[in-house]
Amino acid sequence: MPIIIHCSSIVGSYVFNNGRAHGYPLYQIWIISFFTSLLFEWIMPQYTTYNTGDIADVAAYFAGGLFYFCFHQSFYIKKNHQLIQDRNNKQKFTL
Questions:
Q1: Neighbours of 36 (CB within 10 A)
Q2: Are 37 and 61 in contact (CB under 8 A)?
Q3: Which residues of 46-64 are buried (b: 16+ CB within 10 A; e: fewer)?
Q4: Does the structure show a pLDDT above 80 at 89?
Q5: Distance separating the N- and C-terminal Cα atoms of the chain
Q6: Left, alpha or beta for 19 (phi > 0: left; psi -120 to 50: alpha)?
């Protein structure tokens, strides 16, 4: 889940937020986790042999989403904010 959420956050930041990082509220992360679980653990096992439909994987999707929300998202936003500040400071000195 952290990879899926992080990639969508990066794409969304460039498409909708002029390259500035943004965070997802927890309910949106739960929605992403729910639909990922639905796809990979309920729908895909009906059509493939390599998807198992395991309830432990569903719990892992939600745990990964919670990890992203609690730890990774704030780090990503802080780091992105610092990079933007550094870029703005460089532009001030070069003008």
A1: 19
A2: yes
A3: eeeeebeeeeeebeebbeb
A4: no
A5: 42
A6: left
Structure tokens at 62: 């939600």
Q: In angstroms, rounded to a whole number, what is the distance separating the alpha carbons of residues 76 and 78?
A: 6
HEC states along the chain? CHHHHHHHHHHHHHHHCCCCCCCCCHHHHHHHHHHHHHHHHHHHHHCCCCCCCCHHHHHHHHHHHHHHHHHHHHHHHHHHHHHHHHHHHHHHHHC
Residue-wise pLDDT tens digits, 7-61: 998 898 889 888 788 889 999 999 999 999 999 999 999 999 888 888 999 999 9
Residue keyed to tokens 């969304």: 12
CA torsion 9-15-18-20 (nearest 10°) is 0
